[in-house]
Amino acid sequence: MAPGSELSLRSWSWIRVLLLMLTSVGLSQAQLDNENSLIGVYMESGMVQGLRTEAMDLMKTAVQTASAAMKRGSLGVVFLESMNDTMPENLTAVMTLAHCDRTHAFAPTFAQMGKLHIAVTDAGCRRLKYSTALSVPLVSGSRDIVQLFTDLRMMNTLIWNDITIIHDDSITMAEIGDLVSILTAPTDLTKETAITMVDLATPETSSMKLGKLFSSLGPKPGEPQDRQYMVIASKEEIIKVQDLARSLGLFGSSNQWLFVVPDTNSLSFAMESYLANMVDGDNLAFIYNMSEFTPATPCDNGFQCYIKLLVKQYGAELSAALQKELDLYFQVSEEEWEEVKPSPSQRASTIVKMMKKSQMTSTECSKCTQWGIQAAEVKDAFTIDLLKVADWKPLTGLTLFDDLFPHVTGGFRGRIIPVASVDYPPWQIFVRDSTGSVVGYTGLMFAVLNELGAKLNFSYVVRTPADGQWGVENNGKWNGMIKMIQDKEVIIGVAAFSVSAQRMKVVNFTSSIDRQPYTFMIARPKELSRVMLFMEPFTNDTWILIVISVFIMGPILYLFNRASPYYSYYGLNNGKGLFDLQNCSWYIYSSILQQGGAQLPESHSGRILLGFWWIYVLIVVTTYSGNLVAFLTFPKIENAVSTLDDLLHAKDEITWGYIKGTVLETYFAEAEGKFAEIGKLAEKEEVANKEALYDRVRSSPHAYIEWKTNLLFIMKDEFKKTDTCDFSLGREEFYYENVALAVPRDSPFLDMFNAEIKRMQTGGLIQKWQKDFWPKKDQCSVTAYGGGDATRTVSLSDMQGSFFLLFLGFCIAAVFIFAECIYKCATKSSRSGSPASQSSMVKPFMA
Predict the structure, then answer these.
(1) Are 715 and 647 in contact (CB under 8 A)?
(2) Global confidence as pTM
């Protein structure tokens, strides 16, 4: 190939590549909206300190520099004299240097138009919340603390509504006034805020007067118990305030303390020394100054630095956003691009997010100013650490890492707390495996504890007292779980504690969970022999009168028929039927069995007599039948001992006792009257010997005194083992007790526990758990106080008397038939073949 021809081909190839590139560029420029955009600038003279011309020149230079650095698109600037000026179509962003009120007045309009709004404004001004807006306060000197609290308030990090501000002269009164204005301004979560001021710098606040003043800062009767305190003071004053507040009981889980320390710096800002007197349950947070003490380089707090920085960041992020849009453009068709391309507001929101991310690592402006926020976090009862909550810088504002008061919002924050308990069904049930090892915990009290743990964010480990006791006082010293709680070995006692005045001297109790009475359990009385059950409906004298009435009514009926002139007048007296004494007696006997006979009297006197007799029979038979059904279905079982008085009357035949180490021991020791006598004669049982105790109650005259619910549970449990109802309960209930969990006397968590328990009661959870764990009704509990079982079926033992009666009838009939045979043989031998002998045979019911 000729050299000229080769050169011509190469030139043509480069031309084709160049044309393709130009076509691509032309298409992209034609499709991306506002690629060559303008940024509008509005300045107030007060914000640029009278340097308007200098600020405009600086703005032009910054825009030119940013546009030159853009890889995609371009940026120009237009200055706005008023917000009423007509804005160019390709104006995509507006930078305002204006005071706070005007900044917030402009913001809604720009957001509605989809314009990106960069606002440089006063210190203490709320940052704009629109996704298309970015605001930067001009902070210098001590004004940073004002902006810091503005950000805390607007981000709903500090949501107090009743604040006690305790301050010295570490900040000026003007700044105190600004802080009060910020804290009382309504927010999304706090519409009204009350402020109480305490000035530590006045001559009137001597140590004596200050103590009196602090003593009045606690909640008054009827007021909410949770209080919020903000201390703005120098490093030396913080310890004094803490000691005074501690001595007056102003710390604790119900109160929150925020300590603001303005006089710290980047070289000395450690807060660990303020944790020295902190205890478990306190809520403390610290805001401290981390600004440069002696800056080696200029801090650049003025508007000039922010103009250069913000314009540079906007140009860079605009270019990056355009490049992303272009990449997306080449991946879709023209029709799809019209559907998916970002709107002006979406592009503005994306650029704002990218600018904020870039600012997190920026060190160009206000680089000397920084504040830190830490909170005290309790790891366990003996370990308290400082938790990093947030950092604050003028450019980026508040960067949150955790909650300001982590234990207020997060409870125990996943701590494992020790609790005390003993096995005490159905309140506390230790679930054991086949080897007897405890593998879990259930019961009403553990259901309450599990709910507390879920709400307050803790788990637990159970510790049992070495002596296995609940806790009683001996010579001024307590034992059992009460001692563990008193010595603060555990956070809470998870057991059905009886609330007593003596125990309340050393421990405290939560809100009442239930109310329980005491009663006693004895061996179930044995049912009497049911052989003569058919005789039970009537007393003996009733039976005697019924038998007498049957015997005398036959002769009376016979006499009425023989004496009535009715039969003589009509000639009806043939000596048969009811004119025979034997037939009248059989008729009366059969009628009492509701059978009657084939004949009735024809005289009015005889009919009236039999009519009233049948009414009598109807009443007797109906009453007997009803009572017999009742006695068959509901066998009468009455406890020989039903009250404490019955126990005392039978003290020579029966013994009684209760579990050693319970509050009953205290009750009986302080009791009077019959209760003192009961306590004096009672035996103190060992917890470990419960099975032996139940066997003793079952097999001997011994009563066991305990809560009624517990006794029903024991009856249920023993019934499952033996399938027999061996126990019965006394009817008298005494010593009604409130049941609650126990905590150390000065526990900071009591109010938290009470609030959650109240929610459980209101929501019906405790009632639901009682249904789950309380013993269900069965044939033993239904008849626990005596009486019969409504579901009882008639057994052979109930009917054995009927079979005996039938056998007796057979025997009597056999005797009579034997007598009849003898009589027949005797008469046959004496009157052989005589017709008279045949007619003299007894033929009842024969006319």
Answers:
(1) no
(2) 0.71
